[in-house]
Specification:
This protein is mainly beta and 119 residues long. The protein has one domain. Helices cover 0% and strands 64% of the residues. It is built from no helices and nine strands. The strands form two sheets. Strands 1-3-4-7-8-9 form a six-stranded antiparallel β-sheet, with no helix packed on it. Strands 2-5-6 form a three-stranded antiparallel β-sheet, with no helix packed on it. Strand 3 and strand 4 form a beta hairpin. It is elongated, with a radius of gyration of 18 Å. This is Transporter. It comes from Pseudomonas citronellolis. Pfam families: Phenol_MetA_deg.
């Protein structure tokens, strides 16, 4: 791995299906995950986060869920630290995210430890 700045963006959409037991359907959510990191030798240190926004209302029994359609929105940001392990053809990453803003969601701190390996 070389040294330098690394930028990453990942955009995706979540489409929920209707819960038949409760006749409840959550709205479609657009997500943008992002990261910026600096590589120094085998290490990478950076900042990661996401922003997600619900595009349409939750519905139950065909009607909008009141008072506001229960539209979800969340933004989080935090550090990421990774270490490349060339002999194992993989890397180990730690990421912690803290909520900056939330609506109709839990405001929870999250932490991840990820082992990834080339196939």
């Amino acid at each position: 791995m070389g040294e330098g700045l690394e930028l990453s963006l990942h955009a995706f959409v979540n489409v929920a299906s209707r819960n038949r037991a409760t006749d409840y359907e959550s709205g479609t959510v657009a997500n943008l995950n992002f990261a910026v990191g600096q590589r120094i030798g085998r290490w990478q240190l950076g900042l990661a986060g996401y922003h997600a926004r619900q595009l349409d209302d939750d519905r139950q029994h065909g009607a909008r869920v009141e008072p506001d359609g229960r539209r979800y929105r969340a933004t989080a940001l935090g550090p990421v630290l990774a270490y490349d392990l060339p002999r194992a053809a993989g890397s180990l990453k730690f990421k912690a995210l803290a909520p900056l803003s939330t609506r109709n969601s839990l405001a929870a701190n999250t932490a991840y430890v990820v082992w990834s390996r080339s196939l």
